[in-house]
Design a protein that fits this description.
- By secondary structure, the protein is α+β, with helices and mostly antiparallel strands.
Length: about 60
């Protein structure tokens, strides 16, 4: 699958939707935090499965 975005969070969402995955992708950890009006999302690629899914390095 080829995605046209550089942001890991967008790639994660597109991959999950395209593959009908409801939970998190194996090898991808996601953490969300809210500070007042700002939402921060951190995406970590932790293994080769996640690296292949998101096309991002570990």
């Amino acid at each position: 699958m080829d995605f046209r975005t550089d942001m890991a969070v967008e790639r994660r969402d597109l991959y999950r939707k395209a593959n009908k995955i409801e939970n998190e992708i194996d090898g991808v950890e996601c953490e969300e935090e809210e500070l007042e009006d700002i939402r921060i999302t951190r995406v970590a690629v932790t293994n080769e499965t996640g690296e292949e899914a998101l096309q991002k390095p570990i």
